[in-house]
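Deliverable D4.2, example record:
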Amino acid sequence: MSDLQTRLTHHLQRLSCDRDPYFASAHHFFVQQYIQQQFAQWGTVESQAFTVQGRTHHNWILNLPGKNPHRSPILVGAHYDSVPGSSGADDNATGVAALLEIGRALVSQPGRSPVRLVAFDLEESGLVGSRYYAQHLYQQREPLRLMISLEMLGYCCHQPHSQRYPPGLAYLYPHQGNYIAQIGPWSEIPTMVQLWWGFRQAGVRSQWLPIIQRGYIVPDSRRSDHAPFWDLDYRAIMVTDTADLRNPHYHQPTDTIDTLDLAFFTGVCQGLINGLRCL
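Output generated by the structure prediction step:
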């Protein structure tokens, strides 16, 4: 087992628990502490607090320098909450684990651009944390080169017809669920090609879906933390294993570590690191 896979597995073991902020608040708090402790190894951790129905929630933020400090930052985000009753190993402990290892990798070997890591809360409640963050950026007129949303990265299936699609797309893409998907606007095809090369170097197949009209024509393309950024005309891409279009354990108690393909997940994480270093 590679060192990266060992570390990712360790993160998953800490993060895979019912993390609903209302019905599993103790585990939700523990995961927040874990994210803060990991981020704090590499820099100053910022907290963005926001209130929903009288309760305070937090997005957790870490800024990492790039080789060119004059470039606007690339934001890489993943939500850390889960739905009630699910340990959320794929959804979205995989995204958070990858976020942590991206931080480790880019501290030791920075890429061209500064990178901002953000762990969002309340994605499962309607993209609340990411919407609050995106609106704050917009109101402050803060530049952002790109946003990448990490949304379920660890489920892989080589069986024929294991991959489903929204209407009209099945004829264009593979029927095996053994690739990582990138979903972004047509204007981001060059960026998705760069990420594709990063995944290829890591031995992972990748497909991309260009969207128009902020994804409203294909509603499944809007089901993560990139959507609020699209709505404010920020450049954004979702990286995903396609959730319930592939993974039968989506939002179920059976979304556990043993259902994941850890070698595939490790390749996805390494591919993201490769790509981010070049962007």
